[in-house]
Write a structure and sequence with these properties.
The protein is an alpha/beta fold and about 120 residues long. It is built from 6 helices and 5 strands; from the N terminus they run βαβααβαβααβ.
Length: about 120
C-alpha cells in the first residue's frame, strides 16, 4: 500500500522547529509492515496553498494520513476536501490530538474516512 503522511502547518508566525514524532512513528511502523511511505511536511517547508494542492494532486497514494493538533482543524478540513476531490477512492485517516479530541466532528464535518484515537502506531 502507498501512504502519504501529512503534517499541516502550525504556529505559522514561528519558524518550524519540531519534528512530527507521531508521524515519524507511523512512518516507521508502516514501512516495517511493508508499505511505501512518504511524508509531506507542510509545516517544515511552509508550502503555499497552491503548492499543497499541486502536491496532493500529484500524489499516487492509497491512504492519506493527517496528523494534527486541534488548532489546525480548519486546515485539516480543507486538506480533506482537496484529497477527496483529487483522489476520490483513496482513504483519508485523521489522527493526532485533533482526531482524538473531536472524533465525531472529524467524521461528520470533514471528508475523512477514519479517525485514529490515541496512539496511531498501535492502531
Amino acid at each position: 500500500m502507498k501512504i502519504l503522511l501529512i503534517n499541516p502547518p502550525i504556529r505559522e508566525w514561528s519558524r518550524p522547529n519540531i519534528l512530527p514524532l507521531g508521524l515519524a512513528y507511523i512512518a516507521a511502523v508502516s514501512k516495517n509492515a511493508g508499505h511505501q511511505v512518504e511524508v509531506l511536511d507542510i509545516n517544515a517547508y511552509r508550502f503555499s496553498p497552491g503548492q499543497v494542492e499541486d502536491k496532493i494532486k500529484d500524489a499516487d497514494c492509497d491512504v492519506f494520513g493527517i496528523g494534527a493538533i486541534i488548532t489546525v482543524y480548519g486546515y485539516v478540513k480543507w486538506l480533506t476536501e482537496i484529497i477527496r476531490r483529487e483522489h476520490p477512492k483513496s482513504k483519508i485517516v485523521i489522527g493526532g490530538s485533533v482526531g482524538t479530541s473531536i472524533p465525531d466532528v472529524i467524521l461528520e464535518k470533514t471528508m475523512a474516512d477514519i479517525v485514529c484515537i490515541g496512539e496511531g502506531e498501535s492502531t
